C-alpha cells in the first residue's frame, strides 16, 4: 500500500468523483425522462435534469481515459486480483440475498448473474477486461508509430464510431453506444495520445490544450455541459425525440467534456493518503450497487418510488443519503476484500 500513499491525489480524486457520477447516472436511468409537455410545464426541472445528466454522463469515459493516461500493464496477478474483487462482491451480494429471500435467489438464473453470463451483468467489467487483455498490443502500437500515424488512426476510429455508434446508434450494434470494449479501446488510445502528445494539441490557432489554466478548463467543461443541456431542452421542447442520443458515451461532445475534466484534474497537485486509499477501492462502489441483483430490484426501485411519492426536496435528500450509504458500505466491504487479497495474493505489489 506504500506506493498508493506516494501517488499524487489529483487523479485519485477524479476516480472518486467519476464513481459518484456513476451513482448519479444510475439514479437518472430510474427516472422518467422529460417529455415535451413536461419541458413546457416545468422548464426548471427539465433543465435541471438535463444539466445533471450532462455532468454525470462523462463518468465511464473518464475512467477509461485515466487508464489510457497512465497505461495498462497487463500482469496475470493483477488480472487475478481484479477478478477476485469482482467475484467477491458478486458472491457476497448473492449470498446475502439468498439468506433474505432463498426462494427468489436460490436458482440457476441468479447464479448466471454471479458469473456475469447475461448481457447486462457488470457490462463495464467485461468491456474493461476486453481492453485489459488487448492492452499489450495497444501499447506496442502506441510506442512504435509516429504521431501523425497515431493521430490519423484516432481520427478514423472516432469517425467510424461517431457515424455507426452515435449518428446511427444501431449502425454497428457491437459498439453498443459506448457500452463495449471497442469504445474502451478508442478511449484508451485517446488517453495515451493526450498524455504523450498533449503539448502539441491546440485549441483554435493559438492555445495549446495542455497550457490552458485550471480556470479556463473548468469554464470549457461547464460550457460543454450547458451546451448539452441547451440542446437537450430545445429538441425536447419542440418535440424532436433525440435528446437521449445526446447523453451517450459515444457523443463527441461527451468525449470532449471528459477530456477537459481529465486535463483539469491533471493540473491538481496534492497528496492525500485518505483520498488514495478510497480511490483504490472505488470500483467496489460500482460492484456493489451496479450488480443486476441490486441495481433495478432495489436501488432503482427505491429511487423510482421516492420520485413518484415524495416532494422534490425529500427525493433529493433521500437519494443523496442512499448514494452516501452505498459509497460508505462499498468502501467498507472492500476493506475485507483487501485483507483476503493480501492473504491469497501475498506476493502482489498491488495490494
Walk me through this protein's architecture.
There is one protein chain. With 351 residues, the protein is an all-alpha fold. Helices cover 74% and strands 1% of the residues. The chain has 18 helices and two strands. The protein has a two-stranded antiparallel ribbon. It starts with a helix and ends in a 7-residue tail after the last helix. Mean pLDDT is 92; it is low at 1-5.
What is the rounded distance between the termini?
6 Å
Question: What series of H and E elements makes up the topology?
Answer: HHHHHHHHHHHEEHHHHHHH
Q: Rough shape? A: globular
Biggest sheet architecture: 2 strands, antiparallel
Mean pLDDT figure: 92
- Total beta strands: 2
Q: Nearest-angstrom radius of gyration?
A: 21 Å
Beta-strand level of the residues, as a percent range?
A: under 5%
Weakly predicted, low-confidence segments: 1-5
Structural class: mainly alpha
Helicity level, as a percent range? over 70%
Q: Taking strands numbered 1, 2, ... along the chain, how are they ordered across the largest sheet?
A: 1-2
Number of helices: 18
SSE topology sketch:
Layout: H1 2-6, H2 10-28, H3 36-41, H4 43-56, H5 59-70, H6 76-100, H7 102-105, H8 108-114, H9 123-144, H10 147-167, H11 181-197, E1 202-203, E2 207-208, H12 214-237, H13 243-246, H14 252-266, H15 273-280, H16 283-289, H17 295-309, H18 312-344
Antiparallel strand pairs: 1-2
Helix pairs in contact: 2-4, 2-5, 2-15, 4-12, 5-11, 5-14, 6-8, 6-18, 9-11, 10-11, 12-14, 16-18, 17-18
Amino acid at each position: 500500500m506504500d506506493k498508493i500513499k506516494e501517488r499524487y491525489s489529483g487523479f485519485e480524486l477524479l476516480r472518486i468523483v467519476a464513481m459518484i457520477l456513476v451513482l448519479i447516472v444510475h439514479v437518472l436511468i430510474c427516472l422518467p425522462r422529460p417529455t415535451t409537455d413536461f419541458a413546457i410545464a416545468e422548464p426548471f426541472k427539465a433543465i435541471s435534469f438535463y444539466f445533471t445528466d450532462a455532468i454525470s454522463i462523462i463518468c465511464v469515459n473518464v475512467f477509461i481515459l485515466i487508464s489510457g493516461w497512465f497505461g495498462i500493464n497487463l500482469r496475470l496477478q493483477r488480472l487475478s486480483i481484479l477478478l477476485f474483487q469482482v467475484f467477491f462482491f458478486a458472491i457476497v451480494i448473492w449470498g446475502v440475498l439468498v439468506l433474505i429471500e432463498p426462494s427468489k435467489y436460490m436458482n440457476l438464473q441468479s447464479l448466471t448473474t454471479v458469473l456475469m453470463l447475461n448481457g447486462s451483468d457488470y457490462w463495464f467489467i467485461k468491456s474493461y477486461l476486453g481492453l485489459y487483455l488487448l492492452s499489450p498490443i495497444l501499447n506496442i502500437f502506441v510506442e512504435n508509430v509516429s504521431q501523425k500515424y497515431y493521430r490519423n488512426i484516432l481520427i478514423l476510429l472516432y469517425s467510424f464510431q461517431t457515424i455507426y455508434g452515435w449518428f446511427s446508434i444501431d449502425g454497428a450494434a457491437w459498439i453498443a453506444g459506448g457500452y463495449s470494449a471497442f469504445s474502451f479501446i478508442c478511449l484508451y488510445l485517446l488517453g495515451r495520445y493526450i498524455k504523450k502528445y498533449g503539448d502539441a494539441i491546440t485549441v483554435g490557432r493559438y492555445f495549446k490544450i495542455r497550457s490552458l489554466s485550471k480556470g479556463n478548463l473548468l469554464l470549457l467543461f461547464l460550457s460543454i455541459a450547458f451546451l448539452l443541456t441547451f440542446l437537450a431542452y430545445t429538441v425536447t421542447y419542440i418535440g424532436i425525440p433525440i435528446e437521449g442520443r445526446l447523453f451517450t458515451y459515444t457523443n463527441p461532445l461527451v468525449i470532449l467534456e471528459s477530456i477537459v475534466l481529465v486535463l483539469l484534474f491533471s493540473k491538481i497537485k496534492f497528496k492525500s493518503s485518505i483520498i488514495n486509499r478510497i480511490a483504490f477501492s472505488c470500483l467496489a462502489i460500482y460492484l456493489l450497487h451496479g450488480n443486476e441483483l441490486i441495481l433495478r430490484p432495489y436501488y432503482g426501485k427505491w429511487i423510482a418510488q421516492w420520485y413518484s411519492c415524495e416532494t422534490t426536496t425529500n427525493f433529493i435528500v433521500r437519494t443523496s443519503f442512499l448514494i452516501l450509504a452505498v459509497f460508505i458500505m462499498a468502501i467498507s466491504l472492500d476493506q475485507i476484500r483487501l485483507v483476503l487479497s493480501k492473504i491469497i495474493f501475498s506476493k502482489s505489489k498491488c495490494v
